[in-house]
Design brief:
This protein is mainly alpha-helical. The protein contains 15 helices and two strands. The chain has a single domain, classed as Growth Hormone, Chain: A (Up-down Bundle), CATH 1.20.1250. Strands 1-2 form a two-stranded antiparallel sheet.
């Protein structure tokens, strides 16, 4: 079982300063997402031009990739609670994703984008739970909303810059396949930032003598609504496909993605600070409600300007909910099970994401985009209501072994 070290090292985040390791992880995420989002906003039109049934392919690609990613997040979370060091898994995860991603330039069969995207997400799965555990270990309770908000802001800022770079390169007439190859550069540079990431000051008992404490059952009162919300939370690629349905030119798609990521980047850090002041749960509920409103808006968006406006509004959901969800879990989970708690969180979200992608794609392909967006919005609102009802159970402090 892991524990905090002696000599006052518990005071890691003094005043309003973030530890260097947290800042470095933010920079790494920024560069990684520049690489990723030079590719991702171009994928829907890229695949639609080359392969049939694009909604189903997109849903399957993102759903399968997220499911695989979540399985690795679950495993890496358990590993994080046992391991003496978290950093090697984080480095390996970032490296695998950076190497795999540019191969999207060479796809010509339906299974190839699924394979490449899955390898990318394996890397994400390897790094995410240990990385989140590192951030939680470096920052004391009461400041985790700010820390996770900062990380999400850097992540989303990288996505915005990647979208901008993609838009500029498309505007210069560079082929999409070459843009995918150029995207390898910031991905590889991001690995240099990991040199500034040290292990959090946590003493870990060697794995051979470690008896893992069970994850408290009360946490599932939080993870259950998270999983239900995941059924609504399909890939954001469908937002770009909505613009394609409205006859938006391909050159507009990276700019729409830039709009979305820019809003996310601007909101994430302030929302994290708000979560520290009023409670992460309130910010999560607000974020899920914004998601529901956005999807209902997209269901009825009949023009490109209206769709762009709703996509910008939708960015508020990401800014509010993403960091707050993780901060809330870090506060609810005891330190000795935090890695596995994050693993369960990501795994349940990933299983839901697979089902969400397939369901959304099927509703769109064999029904309509309006039906798909309305169903997703309704599920998101139901998830927010369920979280309000069950959160007191998740927050209950229990001391008996049977309550664990």
């Amino acid at each position: 079982m892991s524990c905090w070290t002696r000599d006052g090292r518990l005071a890691l985040a003094r005043e309003s300063k973030l530890p260097i390791a947290v800042i470095a992880l933010g920079v790494v995420s920024l560069l990684t997402d520049i690489s990723s989002d030079m590719i991702f906003p171009l994928l829907p039109a890229f695949l639609a031009a080359r392969m049939g049934a694009a909604p189903v392919l997109l849903g399957a690609m993102e759903g399968i990739a997220d499911l695989i990613s979540s399985a690795f997040k679950l495993w890496s979370g358990r590993w994080a609670d046992r391991a003496q060091r978290l950093r090697p898994m984080v480095v390996g995860g970032y490296a695998l994703a950076s190497i795999a991603r540019p191969f999207m330039a060479f796809v010509n069969q339906w299974w190839q984008p699924i394979l490449i995207r899955s390898l990318d997400r394996v890397g994400k799965g390897l790094r995410t739970s240990p990385r989140d555990a590192m951030i939680a270990g470096w920052v004391k309770e009461g400041e985790r909303g700010k820390a996770f908000g900062f990380h999400r802001a850097m992540d989303n800022g990288g996505a915005a810059l990647g979208s901008l770079a993609a838009a500029l390169l498309v505007g210069l007439g560079i082929q999409v396949e070459r843009i995918f190859l150029i995207a390898a550069i910031p991905g590889l540079v991001s690995l240099l930032g990991l040199a500034f990431v040290r292990e959090p000051p946590i003493v870990r008992v060697p794995a051979v003598s470690l008896s893992l404490a069970p994850v408290p059952r009360r946490l599932f009162a939080y993870l259950g609504p998270v999983a239900l919300f995941g059924l609504a939370n399909s890939t954001d690629a469908f937002l770009l496909l909505k613009l394609t349905e409205l006859k938006a030119p391909a050159s507009l798609l990276p700019l729409a993605w830039l709009l979305l990521q820019g809003v996310k980047a601007m909101i994430s850090y302030p929302a994290g600070r708000v979560a520290d002041r009023i409670g992460s749960s309130k910010v999560v509920i607000a974020g899920w409600t914004l998601y529901a409103i956005s999807y209902v808006g997209l269901a009825f968006a009949g023009s490109i300007p209206v769709a762009l406006g709703v996509i910008g509004f939708y960015g508020l959901y990401h800014g509010f909910a993403e960091g707050a969800e993780r901060a809330l879990l870090a506060d609810l989970a005891p330190a000795e099970v935090r890695g596995r708690a994050f693993g369960l969180y990501h795994a349940m979200s990933g299983v839901s994401s697979l089902l969400a992608g397939l369901l959304f794609g099927a509703l769109w392909n064999w029904g309509s985009s309006r039906l798909a967006f309305l169903c997703a919005g309704s599920l998101a609102l139901l998830s927010a209501v369920l979280l309000v009802a069950l959160l007191p159970v998740a927050q209950r402090i229990t001391t008996s072994p049977s309550a664990a």
